[in-house]
Each structure stands twice: as C-alpha cells, then as structure tokens.
Amino acid sequence: MKHDHTLKLEQLKGQMPSDDGLCELADLFKSFGDTTRMKILYALSVSDLCVCAIAELLGMEQSAISHQLKKLRQAKLVNSRREGKTVYYALDDDHVRELVAVGFAHLTEEEK
Asked: What is the pTM of this model?
C-alpha cells in the first residue's frame, strides 16, 4: 500500500536550502574530518594559544600546525590576533565552541 506524502514533500521543498548552501555546509563539516584539526579546535575551546604552544601540546612541528590553522581560518572556524611578535589563535565564535561540545556530547551520551 502506497501512502500519500505530497503535502510533506511540498512543505520540505520550500524549506530546503539551496544546493550552494548545502555544499558550503558540507565543506564546513569536512573541516572537522581531520584528527589534528579537531585537536586544535578542542584546545582552542579551552584557551587561546600561539602556534608554538599548540605544536608542543600536540607533539608536532609548527609548520604542520600552521598548515592546519590556515585551513581552519579559511573555514572561518578560527581567527588570530597579534600581540607583539606573537600571534594567538582562538575559535572564531561561540558557534564553533558549541559544535565541538555538541559533537562530544553526542559521542558520549548513554545508549537510549
């Protein structure tokens, strides 16, 4: 037996974002698809840090951290500020902090 879902589909079609918007959203989530970037985002959710501190924390070369920070900046997930000769990185806004927190909450929630 086939059921009629015409009304639901019409409502949904009016609410769907554009293909370009969904492509941008997919690209944003790709930024979360790398363990090093997730470590950086998690660290920055706790405190603003310079490249050398992130490199030391993760046991990686500064050039590798800078490469990942560039990708995170391009995705508008982190920003930077200069204090003298040191550049500090921070999460771009509270939305990024919430995305990281919600992801961990989802992973650690009890089975329903």
From this structure: 0.85
